[in-house]
Amino acid sequence: MPTTRPAPLPPEAAAHLLSTSRLAGAVRSAKASPVVLREMIRRRPAQLRQTLEAIVADPGRPAEVRTIAAVALGSLRDGRSVDALLKAAASKDGALARRAIEALGRSGTPATLARLGRIAAVPAAAQKSLAFARSLIAYRHGLEGERLALPRGARITAIDRRRAATLPARRLSAAAWAALKPALDGADTSVAPSARAPVEIRCRKDRFLLFVHPALDGGAPAEALARPVVAAVLMKWSPTLARWFLAEYIFSHSLPGGTAQLLGTRATGTVVHSGRASRDGSSLRIELQALDTPLAAPTQVRGLMGPAAPQGLRLDALVEPDRTRNRRAPRTPRPARG
Predict the structure, then answer these.
(1) Nearest to 106 by CA among 227, 204, 187
(2) Residue 228: cis peptide before it, omega within 30 degrees of 0
(3) Strands 229-238 and 206-212
(4) How many CB atoms lie within 10 A of CB 194?
(5) Residue 215 contacts residue 223 (beta carbons within 8 Å)
(6) What string of pLDDT tens digits covers the 338 residues of the chain?
(7) Does domain 11-141 correspond to CATH entry 3.40.50.2000?
(8) Are 147 and 253 in contact (CB under 8 A)?
(9) SS3 string of 213-227?
(10) What pLDDT does 160 receive?
(11) What backbone phi and psi angles, to 5 degrees, belong to 89?
C-alpha cells in the first residue's frame, strides 16, 4: 500500500519550530534567510541588538538580509547602533542605504546629525530619506536648525460637512491600556512611554492609537510650543500583519505670535496633514486638516489639550470616506534650516 509523505512545512513554520539556540545559530550563518532573521526579530532575544549590528555591518551578507536588520535596529531605537547603521547608510545599494538612514532618524542622537552630513555619496533612492532623517532627529531631541516646511504649492482639502462622518475618539481607560500594552511591544511609539494612556480613534474598520508627547499631555502643554518636538505619533492596527505600525508623525515647532506649526507626515517623510496649535490660557487649541493628496481623506481635527479638557485631551474629528477629490501627488516636506 503506497504511503504518502507529509507536505514540507513552509519556511515560516519551520523557523517558528526552531529552538532559540538553533535559531541563533542559523542567523549567524552567512546563508541565513530573511525568514529565519524575521523569526529572531519577532522573539527579541537578549543579544538581538548585537546580532543585528553584525549583520548590518557585514558586506558579505545579502542586501535584503542587511536591509531587514537595519529596519529592526531602527525599531529598537538604541543609540548604540549608530556606527553600524552609518556604515550601511553609505552603501551603494539604494534600498539598504534608505532603510539604514530611516533607522538613524528613529534612533540617532544629536551627534548623529553631523555624522550624517559626512556621508560621501548617498544613492538617489535615499536622498529624501536623508533630509527627513535629519529633521526627525532634530524634532526628537528638540533641536533647531532642521525644521520642516510644507511642500511648495501645498493645499488643504476643505471638508464637506454634508459628506463627513464623526470619528469616535476617547482616551483608553487604565484597564484597557494595560490589556493593550503587550500588543505594542517593539512598536515605534517614539514619544511614549507617557504617564497618560493613548487616545483610541475609530474610522470605519480602522483602529488607531494617538500617543501624545508627555510635555504636551500634561498640566501646561502650551510651554512645549517653544521648541521643536514630535508632538504625537499615530499608530494603526494591521489585521493582515497582526501588529501595530507607525502611521504618522505629528511635528510641532514655534511660530511668531505664540502659535505653532503642526505637520503630519508618514514614516517615510511624506506630508499628509497640516495645522496650527495656539495658546488658550495654560491649554492648547489645535487644528489639523488633510492636504490635497490621495494618501489622506479630507479630514478636520479640532482639539483642546490641557487642564480645560476632560482627561487632559479632547478631539473632535470629521472625515470624508471619499478621497476622489484629492488628486495632487503626495510629496515630502521641505527642510527649512535655520
Answers:
(1) 187
(2) no
(3) antiparallel
(4) 17
(5) yes
(6) 455 554 454 455 577 777 778 888 888 887 788 888 888 888 888 889 999 999 998 888 888 999 999 988 888 878 888 988 998 898 888 999 999 999 999 888 899 998 888 887 788 888 889 999 999 999 999 999 899 988 888 888 888 888 899 999 999 999 999 999 888 876 777 766 566 899 999 988 899 999 998 888 876 777 777 889 999 999 999 998 788 989 999 999 999 888 999 999 998 889 999 999 998 888 889 999 999 888 888 899 999 988 888 888 899 999 987 766 555 666 666 676 55
(7) no
(8) yes
(9) CCCCCCCCHHHHHHC
(10) 87
(11) -65, -25
The ranges assigned to domains in the chain are 11-141, 165-336
If you search the block for the grid coordinates 502611521, which residue do you land on?
247
All three cell numbers of 330, joined, read: 503626495
Least Cα distance to 331 among 255, 260, 268 occurs for 268
Q: Which triple of cell numbers denotes residue 183?
A: 500588543
Count CB neighbours of 324 within 10 A.
8
Query: Which one-letter amino acid corresponds to residue 39?
Result: E
pTM, entire model: 0.84
Measured distance CA(21)–CA(26) in Å, rounded: 9
In the block, which residue shows the cell 500588543? 183
Contacting residues for 216 by C-beta, under 8 A, at least 6 apart: 224, 229, 231, 232, 252, 284, 305
Three-state secondary structure readout of the chain: CCCCCCCCCCHHHHHHHCCHHHHHHHHHCCCCCHHHHHHHHHHCCCCHHHHHHHHHCCCCCCHHHHHHHHHHHHHHCCHHHHHHHHHHHCCCCHHHHHHHHHHHHHHCCHHHHHHHHCCCCCCHHHHHHHHHHHHHHHHHHCCCCCEEECCCCCCECCCCCCCCEEECEEECCHHHHHHHHHHHCCCCCCCCCCCCCCEEEEECCEEEEEEECCCCCCCCHHHHHHCCEEEEEEEEEECCCCEEEEEEEEEEEEECCCEEEEEEECCCCCEEEEEEEEEECCEEEEEEEEECCCCCCCEEEEEEECCCCHHHEEEEEEECCCCCCCCCCCCCCEEECC
